[in-house]
């Protein structure tokens, strides 16, 4: 379905479309999984620092990261072919 919003999205530079898709995928994550992902994978924090910060034990903290990564991969896999 060709909607005005889809048309505007298609006119954006590829880098902006990638950024918007990434933000949409992050927004779909549970808050604690999103926090673990950003703290660990983006900011480089270790689980020993992240777990107490979020009030989690180490195993659930690691699981949140695995879940976040899996959901981001699933989101990527559902993008239309040819979409960055």
UniProtKB/TrEMBL annotation:
User: Mind listing the GO molecular function terms for this protein?
Assistant: DNA binding; sigma factor activity
Q: What are the residue boundaries of the RNA polymerase sigma factor 70 region 4 type domain, all occurrences included?
A: 20-72
* Entries under Pfam families matching the protein: Sigma70_r4_2
Sorted alphabetically, which InterPro entries does this protein's record hold?
RNA_pol_sigma70_r4_t2, RNA_pol_sigma_r3/r4-like, WH-like_DNA-bd_sf
Any one GO BP annotation for this protein: DNA-templated transcription initiation
Name of the protein in question: Transcriptional regulator
Task: Please name the source species.
Answer: Stenotrophomonas daejeonensis
């Amino acid at each position: 379905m060709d909607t005005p919003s889809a048309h505007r999205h298609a006119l954006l530079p590829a880098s902006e479309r990638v950024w918007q898709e990434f933000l949409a995928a992050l927004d779909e994550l549970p808050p604690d999984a999103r926090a673990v992902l950003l703290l660990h994978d983006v900011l480089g924090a270790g689980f020993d620092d992240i777990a107490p910060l979020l009030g989690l034990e180490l195993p659930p903290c690691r699981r949140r990261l695995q879940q976040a990564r899996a959901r981001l991969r699933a989101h990527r896999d559902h993008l239309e072919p040819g979409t960055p």
